[in-house]
Amino acid sequence: MRQIITKIDEITGNIATLKSAGVGLKELAVIESPGRTTLGQVISLNGENVTLQVFGGTKGLSTKDQVRFLGHPMRVKYGESLLGRIFNGSGVPIDGGPEPVEEDIPIGGPSFNPANRIIPKQMIRTNIPMIDLFNSLVVSQKLPIFSIPGEPYNQLLARVGMQAEADIIILGAMGLKFDDFTFFRRTFDASGVMNRVIMFVHLASDPVVECLLVPDMALAAAERFAEAGKRVLVLLTDMTNFADSMKEISISMEQIPSNRGYPGDLYSQLASRYEKAVDIGGMGSITILAVTTMPGDDVTHPIPDNTGYITEGQFYLRHGVIDPFGSLSRLKQNVVSKVTRKDHNDIMNTMIRLYSDCRESRNKIAMGFKVSRWDETLLAYGDDFQKEMMDLNVNMSIEAALDKCWEILAKHFEPMQTGLKDQLVAEFWPKK
């Protein structure tokens, strides 16, 4: 039995401070008050001064309450029984099911040994053309979805979860509205994939400190499943809520703020989560797709700005579509026309180039210039490209998407106008 402290020096927000010796960073503590037992975690040590973040909030706690340290960090259950289950930000089931009885594993550990990582070279199919064809998602990639509140980023995440080629889908939700929580649950249930989904959900009404645990619990479980040979896709929403929770906690601890009030270790905190993405030689893999809502649609805001230095590209979700110009997958060259069809690279570049020309023609109209017949052709092509490719409701395999691209090109252009290679035109151009 560990030492029991009978006096809390101060309670500020969700933070409690006290004095104790022999305590480790991130160690769990039990705060026992009349009629209530609350968990806390050590987040700062300064000599004998110990700072605890209290899960469930400090409402009802007293400086006379007893504190008992457990000698180990926060843990999460791991095992096959987690599949199809929903847990809150403290790892407690909220789906009405029983408490899992399998082994406890620590969260927040170091990333996987880089020496055992292999070069990413497998594609994850999602049947979303703007991802599969134009910015392919690669196994072990870490990609943010940059967006703003009000955009359908959670709907996009849910669709990826339903359709992606993965053995296990782990959803880590932070600051989620109850309507969005219900949407995820119903969508996974209705699509028949809930039996391979694990959800860790922190609702907007839950204590802020629990928000910080969600990605660590999701990624700790993902690592163990990957080591067991599973292909794991981790969906995180919203990393801005995670960073804002860090900011709130650091303010409560009276830490010196950095850019726009965020803690100075924001980059390290984000990187320690994103770097969990890995393809393990002879085992499984972890791929991370994480929503980051940009305050004021400002990509220079500290959260998206730091994220861009860590991740391998980004998806920009604007006006309900994935922006083909702002989005980027830096690892797509590892799979395009290598594990996909040989015409993939040329079609991808040609379609985007012609759509860029279409945008210039639209600008001409906006500025009152007269448009040529070529401009009219580009405008008609752009309308079809948006309807057949960019619409997030489009659902087709990458092979079907490539064939559709050839159809769109043949509808509006002659082969020589596209600049495509003669051998590809001879093989793939639709026959009249």
Can you walk me through this structure?
The protein is α/β, with parallel strands linked by helices and 432 residues long. It has three domains: 4-73, Thrombin, subunit H, CATH 2.40.10; 76-329, 3-Layer(aba) Sandwich (Rossmann fold), CATH 3.40.50; 344-428, no CATH class. The protein is 34% helix and 23% strand. It has helices at residues 129-132, 153-163, 178-191, 208-211, 214-227, 239-252, 266-274, 302-310, 344-366, 373-390, 398-412, 415-418, 422-428; strands spanning 4-5, 10-12, 15-19, 27-33, 36-46, 49-54, 66-73, 75-77, 86-88, 104-106, 142-147, 168-176, 197-203, 231-237, 278-279, 285-293, 313-318, 321-322, 328-329. Strands 9, 11, 12, 13, 14, 15, 16, 17, 18 and 19 form a ten-stranded mixed β-sheet that branches. A hairpin with a 5-residue loop joins strand 15 (278-279) and strand 16. Helix 2 runs parallel beside helix 3. The protein starts with a strand and ends with a helix. The relative contact order is 0.12.
Largest sheet: 10 strands, mixed
Proportion of residues in β-strands: 15-25%
DSSP helical segment count: 13
Query: What is the total number of structural domains?
Result: 3
Rg to the nearest angstrom? 25 Å
Q: State the end-to-end distance.
A: 82 Å
Query: Regions with pLDDT < 50 over 5+ consecutive residues?
Result: none
Task: Indicate the structural class.
Answer: alpha/beta
